[in-house]
Amino acid sequence: MFILLTLLTLVLAAGLGYHIYLKEKALSVPWTPDASAIAFSKSPLPEPDPSTFIPSYALPLRTRGRDVVDATGRRFKLSSVNWYGGSDVLFVPSGLDIRHRSEIARTIRRLGFNSVRLPYSDEMVIEDPPVDPALLAANPDLVGSTALDVFEAVVRALTAEGVAVIVNNHITTASWCCGTNPCDAGWSNDHLGGLCRVPQTEADWIDHWVSLMSRLADDPYVIGADLRNEVRGVWGTMPWSRWAPAAERCGARLQALNPDWLIIVGGTESGNDLSGVARRPVVLPLPDRVVYSSHVYAWSGWGDRGGRYSQRPYASFEASMKEKWGYLLDGDVAPVWVGEFGSPTKPSRGDANYWRNLMRYLIKVDADFGYWAINPRKPGTDEIETYKLVEDDWETPVLDYRMKDMIELMAGPASREEKDLKHKN
């Protein structure tokens, strides 16, 4: 009997394994762009709307219900792109060897993005090393500068072009995020003893924020601080009840430095889960400044019953979004900025399924967003960034299904005020 049960168990396990194999194989088949995406790739990039950029707004910004608004109550929709490198092994935003920082800023604006999420590592602040001149070949005026000097110069170049900046504490150790190193899983790592090459207490983390942001406090187009990238613990766990108070302590220090900054607090479970806000919102000394952030990728949702987002039908995907963060928008509770999402230039069917579902939802709720990333290559390895939005010259746009959909997302539906007026009439 035991042998029979064992054989039956093995057969069932083999059958399940084969089913999973077939499902994964189907998801990995290359996706063929539809006719509209192909037509977009052959057309000139539409001109961005100047009224969506920060110089046309009355500062400072505040939050009102689910929106970020200016001093007149006009919504400032965050249509952002990530520009990484400062948090990585070379300590410098990428592309400065290819193109002047002001030219990259103009390219970002030309693509229609009104804001940039600019990551840094704590190690960059601690060490502040001189930057290799080869990495600044197209910015000779910065040769001889340290990492913090270059970071500040990039910020100033962006804001000079009317592009708002959100600074992001991405990782503790200067490296690609996010791996399995527990030293980088949260804002502090002193509970790990002497394990970490870059040790950090919570007080250190906050001091690094203050040190960096003190350089930028006079720039009105530096609009916010994204406190920490993708907090997580062992096996992706991190209780919101631990993260929220730490975010409040850091946010309070930054508000003392500049009361007009938006304080952006990411979700747990690698940035995807903000369900804890319903029970325990982040409260700062100065109100109407908290923006929550979620990250949504094809592989997100791996710990949920419905599985990864690449494999879900829309109904399941939408239900997960509502549960994790969409309820904050639906209830007009607080703004949520989807600060990271992305898809490759050559997507699989799973990638395309995730992307279609995400775009459908983001457009439906008129969400603030931040695409990962503009970079054409990864620092250090020079590996091609498959999520890139520009070619290696840091100027030529990659016009495909992603930019087509994001232009629609930037435009958004008719404003809620217009919809309400039409409904009343």
The strand order across the widest sheet is 3-4-5-6-7-8-9-10
* Topology order in helix (H) and strand (E) letters: HHEEEHEHHEHEHEHEHEHEHH
Gross morphology: globular
Overall CATH class: Alpha Beta
CATH architecture: Alpha-Beta Barrel
What is the tally of beta strands?
10
What is the CA-atom radius of gyration, in angstroms?
Answer: 22 Å
CATH topology, by name, is: TIM Barrel
Beta-strand percent range: 5-15%
Main traits of this protein?
globular, disordered C terminus, 12 helices, GH, hydrolase activity, hydrolyzing O-glycosyl compounds, alpha/beta, two-stranded antiparallel sheet, Related to endo-beta-1,4-glucanase, 8-stranded parallel barrel
In a nutshell, what does this entry contain?
Keywords: Glycosidase, Hydrolase. The chain has 12 helices and 10 strands. The protein has helices at residues 2-27, 35-41, 101-110, 122-127, 147-160, 202-214, 240-257, 268-271, 314-330, 349-365, 401-411, 416-424; strands spanning 62-64, 67-69, 79-82, 115-121, 164-171, 222-226, 262-266, 290-295, 336-340, 368-371.
Explained architecture:
The chain is α/β, with parallel strands linked by helices. It has one domain (56-424): TIM Barrel, CATH 3.20.20. Helices cover 36% and strands 12% of the residues. It contains twelve helices and ten strands. The chain has an eight-stranded parallel β-barrel. The protein is globular, with a radius of gyration of 22 Å. 45% of the residues are buried. Residues 16-21 and 415-425 have low confidence and may be disordered. Belongs to the glycosyl hydrolase 5 (cellulase A) family. This is Related to endo-beta-1,4-glucanase. It holds the Pfam family Cellulase.
